[in-house]
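subagent[fold] <- orchestrator: predict structure for attached chain, return tokens only, no commentary.
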Amino acid sequence: MDGRQGFPRWRLEGIYESNVCPRRVVTDDSARWLSLYPHYEKGHLLMRGALSDQPAIFIDAMALIASTIDKARAEQRSG
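subagent[fold] -> orchestrator:
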């Protein structure tokens, strides 16, 4: 089973609509990064220490997620 429905079952009003389960298109690695973002947003870092003590990939991933969220919010406000 590929998660498809014959109609747009998954919907975020005005933002997203699909007949494919969104979880099916998010890789396991992406899901792990996304699961860290709420902690990062609250100031909880991956590693002990300050921002400069964090792995570059962590900082890059959190910046990408934040940028994507900001862009989606801006589009939602304007559209």
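orchestrator: received. Logging for downstream: The two ends are 35 Å apart (CA to CA). DSSP finds three helices and two strands in the chain.
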